[in-house]
Amino acid sequence: MTFINRPLDIKYLLDEIEEKIGSDPRWQGRLNLQEVGILGQSFGGYTALSVAGAPLNLEQLRKDCQSEDTRFIFNLSLLLQCQTINLPLEISTNLGDERITAAIAINPVSSGVFGAENKGLSQIKIPTMIVSSTEDIFAPPIPEQIYPFISLTTPERYLVISKPATHFSFIAEEEETSASIELPKQLIGPDPNLAYPYLQGLSLAFFQAYLQNQSQSLLYLSEPYLQYLNQEPFTFSLLKSLTKADIQRIINNFSEQVTEK
User: Which end of the chain is more exposed for a tag (fewer CB within 10 A), N or C?
Assistant: First the structure.
């Protein structure tokens, strides 16, 4: 039910804020709830795509998860998505919210839950950015972000590929507690503090452009600008479209990295 409840949490939150604006003078005139941006990472990335307008396809996912081929796919995120197969088919699967008008999904899980060939993503009509990490073993970039990006039909779409980012490169470190689990450095990858400025700059430009109509911010959503910023250990590239040749080059690049390791 988490796949259903997380997008609904966003809806309920916006509903609650709208009620505050209508009943509490301290809130009036402070927020524009007709143009809301959402940014999410991993499962939160799925949530962002869902409320952005991509409906779930539980019937197709059920067939995919029961397929013999799926059992031999090394994709940890697909195991998570397959947990939805016991949800009743009559449950609401269109969880989009029209108040969301721009979305950023970082390392989202999406290959199965939005249906075959990610057709659900084709129904997103708002500006969307997908951020993918080349060393992500939990939500592998090719099935979970790169192929899903191809399904986007909205004209304002961006694919950002970060190398050698991992699933944890854009997650802020929490304060250590007695219950904290320390992750191996190999899983975390290079210091995430060095990746945050890129994400901050990209997300700020994206939301300024598509929530506040600041057209000059589009200059920062470009491959030349990212190349200007790039410095070790992280490099970022930005694409607005993908061809089959592009995908093959990406796959070849990943294959070479695996061979070298």
Answer: C
- pLDDT one-digit tens code per residue, 56-115: 887 777 777 877 555 545 677 888 888 887 887 777 788 999 999 999 999 999 888 886
Per-residue pLDDT at 229: 82
Quickly tell me which residue has 């490169």 as its tokens. Answer: 169
Between CA 132 and CA 124, with CA 95 as vertex, the angle to 5 degrees is 50
- CATH topology for 2-15+32-170+184-260 is Rossmann fold (3.40.50)
Structural domain boundaries in the chain? 2-15+32-170+184-260
Q: How far apart are CA 62 and CA 59, in angstroms?
A: 5
199 in helix, strand or coil?
helix
149-197 confidence digits (pLDDT tens): 999 999 999 999 999 999 999 987 655 544 556 777 778 889 998 898 8
CA dist., res. 61 & res. 41, Å (int): 22
The pTM of the full predicted model, rounded to 2 decimals, is: 0.88
Paired tokens of 171 = 């997650």
* Phi, psi (degrees; rounded to nearest 5) at 149: -60, -35
Look up residue 216 and give its DSSP letter: G
- Is the Cβ–Cβ distance between 127 and 103 less than 8 Å? yes
3-state secondary structure at position 222:
coil
Structure tokens at 7: 């997008």
Contact of 193 with 164, CB cutoff 8 Å: no
Q: For residue 133, what are the contacts with CB-CB under 8 A and spacing of at least 6?
A: 107, 141, 162, 165, 166, 167, 169, 170
